[in-house]
């Protein structure tokens, strides 16, 4: 130890060592350094002793523990002493305050060694304390920035979840503090952007920049590769852009980032964010095969657009009437959960809504009971999905009745336009040598369960899965994942008579 002290002192006297230790200390501030533990260890080695850094509560932050008088430490922390030097038996101690008092902002740098501290050793300690203060301040600033980012991300997610359950009043109230005016519009488009999982934070930041703070950007809680963007329109009338300006910016972002895809919804009322989200995810599946990597939900013919609008709305209203009798908050929760539960798995829907999967299942069961339907059956799910989407539509329906009789689900599917669409869609499967259509029919009848379908067909379950998977590119729809694509194929089978229409309790209610 003494030899080390003599060497340090000699270096200072020669004039060359002073520059060397100063350069070493400055190295600790370079981006590759900036490690408090390394700085304290470097100081201990430089003075030939032991060093430690205590925080504002006296707890060890870095270095090796040094036995210290608690009252002396408290005096330095409180600012009653800026520094202290003393001899304790066979060791010499120096304490220097790091940062400004009072605690917990301040800390103490303590150094002990068996030989007295000369002017060079004291200067080394004081300069190191200044470097440590800079490093701690930078670390706290970075930590505060990360905490702010996490808090902001949590707020964005909270706003999205409120929109998902149609609580636009609370959503606007939460958003107003950080993003004044963001949700003042009555309508919005929802976009889902997909990229690499390890680049999602960067992608979200780019979405924020691209939309200029005019959209709600949220890391999707259900899919680690997705970023959700809710882009409100500037005005609720037909002239509002419905988030179209944000959509153009997001398309440009996709064009500049290979391997990134964008799906967008139709324009919806802000309370129908859940419907818009489901549409955006459906469009995203199409975007993966698009040369531009982007697609909008309205770009593909939907069966509901081929049905008589008055009859469709009358049927939907009758089917969903039991939900309309519930208190607003309960109704909004059941509707949002049912929409998402029909589009995604219970786990994914739970993450989106911020509830447990058991809660999702319980709400789905209650909705099924109220509607008098069995939501475990694919044809029933397709019918309820159609009714919910019709209810969420902003397209005006002409005044008047839907006819003299009660409209039934089978009546909606019996129209010429719907049947022609269904025959064209399913007719694509005949080009394949395998009986894909027959396999699909059995698979749907079995509730999408490959094992049960295999038992009905007398084939292996893996063969059923291969047939269903083989039908996906032919039909340009995802079938193995629940959601809009799957239900469209179910509706097509019902329309051409390959499946019997399901029993829907709500159809028997008086209009």
UniProtKB/TrEMBL annotation:
Q: Where is the PucR C-terminal helix-turn-helix domain?
A: 346-389, 436-479
Q: Where are the transmembrane segments?
A: none
Provide the protein name. Answer: Helix-turn-helix domain-containing protein
Q: Which Pfam families match?
A: HTH_30
Q: Which species is listed as the source?
A: Streptomyces anandii
Highest taxon above the source species = Bacteria
């Amino acid at each position: 130890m003494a030899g080390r002290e003599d060497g340090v002192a000699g270096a200072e006297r020669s004039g060359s060592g002073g520059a060397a230790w100063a350069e070493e200390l400055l190295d600790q501030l370079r981006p590759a350094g900036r490690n408090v533990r390394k700085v304290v260890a470097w100081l201990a080695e430089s003075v030939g002793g032991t060093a430690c850094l205590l925080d504002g509560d006296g707890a060890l932050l870095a270095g090796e523990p040094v036995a210290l008088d608690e009252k002396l430490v408290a005096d330095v922390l409180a600012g009653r002493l800026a520094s202290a030097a003393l001899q304790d038996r066979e060791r010499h101690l120096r304490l220097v305050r790091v940062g400004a008092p009072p605690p917990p902002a301040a800390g103490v740098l303590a150094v002990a060694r068996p030989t007295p501290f000369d002017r060079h050793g004291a200067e080394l300690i004081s300069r190191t304390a200044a470097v440590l203060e800079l490093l701690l301040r930078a670390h706290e600033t970075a930590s505060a920035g990360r905490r702010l980012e996490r808090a902001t991300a949590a707020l964005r997610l909270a706003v999205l979840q409120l929109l998902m359950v149609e609580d636009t009043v609370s959503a606007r109230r939460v958003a107003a503090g950080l993003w004044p005016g963001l949700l003042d519009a009555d309508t919005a488009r929802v976009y889902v952007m997909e990229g690499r999982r390890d680049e999602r934070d960067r992608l979200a930041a780019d979405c924020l920049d691209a939309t200029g703070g005019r959209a709600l950007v949220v890391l999707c809680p259900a899919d680690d590769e997705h970023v959700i963007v809710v882009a409100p329109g500037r005005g609720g009338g037909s002239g509002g852009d419905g988030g179209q300006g944000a959509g153009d910016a997001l398309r440009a972002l996709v064009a500049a980032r290979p391997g990134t895809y964008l799906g967008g919804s139709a324009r919806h009322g802000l309370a129908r964010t859940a419907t818009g989200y489901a549409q955006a995810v459906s469009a995203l599946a199409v975007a993966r095969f698009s040369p531009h990597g982007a697609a909008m939900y309205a770009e593909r013919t939907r069966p509901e657009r081929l049905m008589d609008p008055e009859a469709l709305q009358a049927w939907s209203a009758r089917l969903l009437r039991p939900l309309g009798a519930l208190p607003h908050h309960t109704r909004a929760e059941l509707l949002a959960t049912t929409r998402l539960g029909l589009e995604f798995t219970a786990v994914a829907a739970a993450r989106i809504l911020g509830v447990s999967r058991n809660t999702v299942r319980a709400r789905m069961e209650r909705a099924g009971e109220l509607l008098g339907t069995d939501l475990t059956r694919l044809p029933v799910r397709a019918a309820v999905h159609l009714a919910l989407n019709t209810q969420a539509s902003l397209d005006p329906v002409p005044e008047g009745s839907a006819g003299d009789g009660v409209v039934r689900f089978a009546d909606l599917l019996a129209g010429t336009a719907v049947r022609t669409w269904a025959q064209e869609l399913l007719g694509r499967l005949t080009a394949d040598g395998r009986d894909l259509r027959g396999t699909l029919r059995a698979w749907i009848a079995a509730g999408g369960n490959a094992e049960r379908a295999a038992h009905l067909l007398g084939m292996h379950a893996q063969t059923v899965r291969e047939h269903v998977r083989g039908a996906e590119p032919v039909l340009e729809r995802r079938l193995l994942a629940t959601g809009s694509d799957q239900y469209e194929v179910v509706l097509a089978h019902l329309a051409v008579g390959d499946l019997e229409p399901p029993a829907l309790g709500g159809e028997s209610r008086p209009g």
